[in-house]
């Protein structure tokens, strides 16, 4: 049962993911709402209790494919640690036991960039960066605080393969991981 008041909590077909608030750990998998009805009111307005039936869990994979990123880091905004920033805000990352994201594939993209940060990821189990083309340019001066093409915080099972860099990519120097 959901404890809400005065608004429609969800609709059939909506997806719901349960999480632990302090660690942002996913509890189970995504759930698809099969049916939802107000229990204490005839309609949703003013209802405090709902009966919700969920379908079978859904896949959590993400695919970023076939894009062209051109000089994407021209300003410093919150949560912009690289061209692609996978950045869940997790208050107690060190206490987290599970991972927030999984099954991320970044493939067959073109990155045209004046600076070094390509991918930043936090709390990921399974990230693949493959068959991408990286082209550096001098259209803007490099300025970003992150000097690594790949910066990973609490990321496991990542793979970088068959990418075409126009600079001398060295995984030992160009990939930084923090536990």
Order of helices and strands: EEEEEEEEEEEEEHE
Helix content: under 10%
C-alpha end-to-end distance: 37 Å
How many E strands?
Answer: 14
Q: How does the major sheet shape up?
A: 6 strands, parallel
Please report the number of helical segments: 1
Radius of gyration based on Cα positions: 20 Å
Mean pLDDT: 84
Spatial shape: elongated
Structural class: mainly beta
- In the predicted model, the low-confidence regions spanning at least 5 consecutive residues are 1-5
Report on this structure.
With 179 residues, the protein is mainly beta. The protein is 2% helix and 46% strand. The strands form three sheets. Strands 5, 7, 8, 10, 12 and 14 form a six-stranded parallel β-sheet that branches. A four-stranded antiparallel β-sheet has the order 1-4-3-2, with no helix packed on it. The protein is elongated.
Task: Break the fold down into its secondary structure elements and pairings.
Blueprint: E1 2-3, E2 15-20, E3 25-38, E4 49-54, E5 62-65, E6 68-70, E7 84-86, E8 101-107, E9 110-113, E10 119-130, E11 133-136, E12 150-161, E13 164-165, H1 171-174, E14 175-178
Parallel strand pairs: 5-8, 6-9, 7-10, 8-10, 9-11, 10-12, 11-13, 12-14
Antiparallel strand pairs: 1-4, 2-3, 3-4
Can you give me a brief rundown of this structure?
The protein has 179 residues and is an all-beta fold. 2% of the residues lie in helices and 46% in strands. The radius of gyration is 20 Å and the shape is elongated.
What labels describe this entry?
elongated, disordered N terminus, single chain, six-stranded parallel beta sheet, mainly beta, 179 residues
